[in-house]
What does this fold into?
Amino acid sequence: MNLKQIRFALAVAQEQNFTRAAQRCHTVQSALSHQIAKLEEELGSTLFERTSRQVNLTAAGRAFLAPAEQLLAAHSHLIDTMEALKGEVTGTLTVGIISTLNAIDVIGQMAKFTQRYPLVNIRMYVGMTEKLLEDVQQLRTDVAFVGIWPGDKATLRLPHRQLADEPLVALVSPSHAYALRPTITLSELAQVPLVDFYAGAGARRQTDNAFGEAGVTRHVSFEIDHIEWLESIVRRSLAAGIVPLSRARHADDLVSIPIENAPRRQVFCVWQPSLSAAAERFLAFAQEDE
It folds into this structure.
């Protein structure tokens, strides 16, 4: 078993296709298939079920994923550590952020970090809190900026630092019936169409919990996975939304309304227990800049 075989297998698992996996790994399909066959022979297990249209993971393949990802992450960490001993910070820094992150200027931090450590390759992506936490736990992501409501904080098992604590506010278009209201209640919001994150998402659990504690039943007409979709729907007067105060301040063409007894959202920076040199420097750098 070698690292190339593991990389090939992970590429197939993610692409669910041998041809696309070979293209992604910059090799020919026959070579990729040969290496995966050798890996399966050594493991004594079939990792993939091959059909004419799709490639699916077997039970052994699903069990293989997490340890394989951790092994590649450990190898990358080792290389980064050795490079750092030479006096230069190199390697790849992977950072995940939620789409509603406005309490801090992560992009500005990255720009300054890149100026100071130009040899570090930065990969940044946007995702939901649950996926970001899973990625950090599975060593796919070095650092993540997530939003958690106070009721979920006890489930945060990773090393973390709290960055913000802010209320949620209602967001409506200037032509909405509530646009001139100085404040609003959850009961009143439940009487109009609403847009929110999809069921099961942490942000959605927070608002569901807030309405539930207020004894209010609401109906979500639009379910989204990115804040820009929410703002677009609100902008067209299709629904009212509920967003963190810092995000509402960036939507200049929309109207934010304080919610009575508003639920709160906390922003955290979370990271892997064992950090690469690049991630360690980024955390220290970001803390200086806060």
